Amino acid sequence: MPVKLKGDIELKSAPTPMQKALKINLNQNIYGSFAEIGAGQETARNFFRAGASSGTIAKAMSAYSKEFSDAIYGREADGRYVTKNRLKKMLIHETKLLEERIDRKQFPDRFYFSYANTVATIDFAKKYKGHGWVGIRFQLGPYEDYNEIILHVRFHENDAKHQQETLGKMGVNLIYGAFYYNDNPKDLLASLYDYIDKDKIEIDMINFSGPRFAFVDNRLMSLLLVKNGFTDAVMFGPDGYNLLPADELYKKNILALRGSFRPVTKLALDMLEKGLAKFTEETDVNPEKTDLILEMTLDNLTNGADDINEKDFLDRVNLLSSLNQMVMVTNFREYYRLSEYFSRFTKERMGLIIGANHLIKLFDENYYKHLSGGILEAMGKLLNKKMKLYIYPYKERGQDEIICSRNMRLDKKMQDLFEYFKNDGKFVDITDYDEQLLNTYNRELIDKIQKGIAGWETFVPDEIAEQIKKNKLFGYNRLQLS
Predict the structure, then answer these.
(1) Per residue in 3-43, pLDDT tens?
(2) Are the C-beta atoms of residues 37 and 119 closer than 8 Å to each other?
(3) Listing from the earlier edge strand, what are the strands of the sheet with 30-37?
(4) Are residues 429 and 459 located together in one domain of the fold?
(5) Does 122 lie in the same domain as 36?
(6) What's the whole-model pTM score?
(7) Residue-number span of the structural domain to which 461 is assigned
(8) Which residues of 236-266 are buried (b: 16+ CB within 10 A; e: fewer)?
(9) The domain boundary residue, chosen from 165, 194, 216
């Protein structure tokens, strides 16, 4: 439950940023510092304008000069200023100053906080809209350890002044949420956009830490970023920690496999292994700078239901992490949107591993009616000069024919378009596949797991089968039927 604070005033739901700032200012417990670099001091300004700020604001500063900033927080090894590491240094430094300069004995009931941001707003030529790191380090008891909420934002507005104002509102929302919504991180996350349009600013990573957030799974919070429309994609490393796609994918070779991974099968791992082998044969691929990504869309996660089963989602991510795999969750139903997204971060060789059955669906023009250029526009975006598709063969149940790009039959009016891209080298067939794995059909597999029908274990890696049984994943029925 949130800590009951002295001097609280009652506010209606979704209070304005000014009302939030005033409520915090009138609170006798909350006291802290503001350090804002790169977008003025818009968050602190909201608190000053709300009135009664003298009991809340210990200090508000902007070390705008790089040299002055380095003198306070130290120089980063890579020379950058808009980084997560820089933000954390700012939060720790400002909190330390509060502890050193304010006598606890004189103010025994105060909860200290430090709010900081380091951002780059839109450039003069208006080609680069900017991004930033924002965070708060705060107590919910005078002698408690500190909690942290750190997030990364991307600006979408075309005016620096508007970007500053939007960031100021989000800063107020973050500080208010830290003190008044800390018992419900989902509500806290949603409240960050109070009185802010989602198309103005994007949150593409968030992390909660500290004693009050010991129960929070940051992967689930990241999933909610996509589900709530705050961003298009989020990433988790093999260790389960959130990653910032822009940092992880920057100037990398990227190879991705889309799937539901419910559960991850031997077929999926063979697609990865054989697809990666083909990908690294490309002359412009550096294996040491290649990211291999398993991607799930929101559609993959709902499985026809109205909402996402959060436990089911975490079960899948845990299994993939146990296999040392990197995971991405997106709202990109169409493959061309995934290709466009990767192209934001790299100009190096990229690839998608795709089953031959899905390649056929790619050439169904009904999927692209929402585009003014139809399937031609979609294929132009998908198969840009740095993207190739690595085709894993497919076999229909009860059929002997193995389908690949060489014998694929499409609608007559799509065949010429297909042949154009094939002749251009955009499709690479995976030939050293394991034919026995072509008999893997995911819907049947999950049905066997849930009904307890013997033999499903042969389709998944041994360690995955053990975890499914041990943790009773995906509706596993331990009563095996012959």
Answers:
(1) 555 566 666 568 999 999 999 999 999 999 999 998 889 99
(2) yes
(3) 57-61, 30-37, 111-120, 131-138, 147-155, 201-209
(4) no
(5) yes
(6) 0.93
(7) 442-475
(8) beeebebbbbeebbeebbbbbbbbbbbbbbb
(9) 216
